[in-house]
């Protein structure tokens, strides 16, 4: 069985979608969900599905091997970032493959501070004709690793960040679990 650990900072809709996708999978399972915020709703979502979950500190994540050792003890095969906003430390990058999803067509609209509505606002402000999602491997630079998959959608003339975000979310829900599955089935 391949074990996934999900890291998330927010409400966790993508995490829930991934949990549901692998719920009855014969060779892949979501082992656990972790957050850097004790109030992140993703932890409640995980608990509703019986998924182990917890919170880690900045110190445990960056200044020690605590979190790394925790994941190793759980035999994690893949870390999935689903709305996780911290830069991943090098020790985790070297120990595990890590996949992230970004709500734009990288390399455009990526980097530190570019997440969620900030991305959609920038896309609309710059009058882009299309946006989409990028699913990529994580390296030491925000939104920089090898691209595994991209999907596009139109940016409509009357779009707001919310209407564009809704189309982007649908692409995320449709493609993120499948790309994770394909990656682990190689």
Write a concise synopsis of the structure shown:
This protein has 186 residues and is α/β, with parallel strands linked by helices.
Could you describe the 3D structure shown?
This protein is of the alpha/beta class. It has helices at 13-22, 41-48, 58-63, 66-73, 90-95, 117-125, 161-185; strands spanning 2-8, 28-35, 52-55, 78-81, 98-102, 130-137, 147-154. Helix 1 links the parallel strand 1 (2-8) and strand 2. The mean pLDDT is 96.
Comma- or semicolon-separated keywords:
single chain, 186 residues, alpha/beta, seven-stranded mixed sheet, 7 strands
Main-sheet strand order equals 3-2-1-4-5-6-7
Please describe the biggest sheet, giving its number of strands, its sense, and whether it closes into a barrel.
7 strands, mixed
Order of helices and strands: EHEHEHHEHEHEEH
> How helix-rich are the residues, as a percent range?
25-40%
Low-confidence stretches: none
Gross morphology: globular
Number of helices: 7
Q: Could you tell me the strand content as a percent range?
A: 15-25%
Number of strands: 7
Amino- and carboxy-terminal Cα gap:
14 Å
Rg, Cα atoms, Å: 16 Å
Which structural class should the secondary elements be placed in?
Answer: alpha/beta
Quaternary assembly? single chain
What do the pLDDT scores average to? Answer: 96
């Amino acid at each position: 069985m391949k074990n996934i650990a999900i890291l998330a900072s927010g409400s966790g809709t993508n995490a829930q979608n991934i949990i549901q996708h692998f719920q009855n999978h014969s060779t892949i399972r979501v082992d656990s969900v972790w957050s850097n915020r004790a109030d992140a709703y993703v932890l409640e979502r995980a608990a509703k599905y019986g998924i182990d979950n917890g919170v880690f500190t900045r110190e445990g994540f960056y200044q020690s091997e605590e979190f790394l050792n925790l994941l190793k003890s759980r035999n994690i095969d893949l870390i999935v970032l689903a709305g996780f906003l911290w830069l991943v430390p090098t020790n985790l990058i070297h120990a595990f493959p890590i996949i992230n999803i970004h709500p734009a067509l990288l390399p455009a609209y990526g980097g530190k501070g570019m997440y969620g509505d900030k991305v959609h606002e920038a896309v609309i402000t710059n009058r882009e004709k299309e946006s989409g999602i990028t699913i990529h491997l994580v390296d030491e630079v925000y939104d920089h690793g090898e691209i595994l998959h991209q999907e596009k959608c139109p940016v409509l003339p009357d779009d707001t960040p919310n209407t564009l975000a809704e189309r982007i979310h649908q692409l995320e829900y449709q493609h993120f679990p499948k790309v994770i599955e394909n990656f682990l089935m190689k």
